[in-house]
Write a structure and sequence with these properties.
Layout: H1 2-6, H2 22-28, E1 50-52, E2 57-59, E3 61-66, E4 80-85, H3 90-100, E5 105-110, H4 113-121, E6 127-131, H5 132-141, E7 149-151, E8 159-161, E9 164-166, H6 170-188, H7 205-210, H8 217-221, H9 227-234, H10 238-245
Parallel strand pairs: 4-5, 4-6
Antiparallel strand pairs: 1-9, 2-8, 3-6, 3-7
Helix pairs in contact: 6-9
């Protein structure tokens, strides 16, 4: 977003927020963009003064357990104690799934994420339940021996994650939305941070419009025509960002799965810039 708006990917201020603070901070104007692991839901997109700008990561709620618990399926968790963070969609999703599958459990709900992790590590609960990407992060970065923990195979919800802006801020919404689609289109076209300059000579009209060789897309957004070029040059395309932060080349080692391009069997589909 900073690369698109200011031409400089470093010109932003990050404001750490927990799950309960995030929407209040957006509503109050403390932040302009909620870029966090936030699920797009009907309520959040309508009743909280916020609006989704798209999905940049398809996730789902799962379960992390110690191997010593001796279970291989979430349906074996009857009677278990489950740690979750308050202020998330995980509580309701867990309750709905347990009711539907006749699983009884005891919730341990804690406000701060790190405190939830600490409670799980200390053995206050048998299970940690949150988005699968979060579980992968916890297992790798927080556990002394990751091999002593396993993420169970069940995914019990749809958790499409993405950025939010304030409702009514349509100009900013467009910039956020099309920044995401610029990154998706760049990956689909094979344009990377390393070769973007070579593509400036491309004869493909779609590439010319994306990189600002043919003018118009930048003007539509109120930005410099090099807005998408700056994104790709300074940050990379969607795939580069994915691999660097959460992919198989990172510590989290998350496979693309649903987050692969539509041409590779995933759900990522860049809307046309024309």
């Amino acid at each position: 977003m900073a690369a698109a708006t200011f031409g400089d990917a470093t010109k932003f201020k990050a404001v750490p927020l927990n799950s309960q603070q995030r929407f209040t901070a957006l509503q109050s104007g403390e932040i302009d963009l909620l870029a966090r692991n936030t699920t797009v839901t009907q309520q959040r997109d309508t009743a909280l003064g916020a609006i989704s700008a798209g999905v940049n990561f398809y996730d789902g709620q799962g379960f992390l357990v110690p191997t010593s618990l001796g279970v291989s399926s979430a349906k074996e968790l009857d009677g278990a104690t489950v740690c979750m963070q308050t202020g998330t969609s995980n509580e309701n999703t867990m309750a709905d799934w347990a009711r539907a599958n006749n699983v009884n459990y005891k919730p341990v709900v804690i406000e701060q994420f790190n405190e939830v992790v600490n409670a799980f590590v200390a053995g206050r609960c048998d299970v940690f339940s949150t988005d699968a990407s979060g579980l992968a992060s916890i297992r790798i970065s927080k556990m002394t021996d990751p091999d002593e923990y396993v993420v169970l195979p069940e995914i019990i919800s749809k958790e499409p994650l993405g950025p939010f802006v304030r409702q009514g801020d349509d100009v900013w919404l467009n910039v956020v939305k099309w920044t995401l689609h610029a990154m998706l289109n760049a990956e689909e076209m094979g344009i990377t941070s390393a070769n973007v300059d070579e593509h400036l000579d491309s004869k493909d009209p779609n590439v010319q419009r994306l990189l600002g060789v043919t003018e118009g897309a930048g003007k539509n957004l109120g930005l410099d025509e090099k807005w998408a070029y700056n994104i790709v040059k300074q940050v990379g395309n969607y795939g580069e960002s994915f691999e660097r932060n959460v992919g198989e080349g990172s510590a989290l080692d998350i496979k693309r799965g649903l987050n692969a391009q539509w041409t590779d069997g995933g759900l990522m589909y860049g809307l046309p810039i024309r």
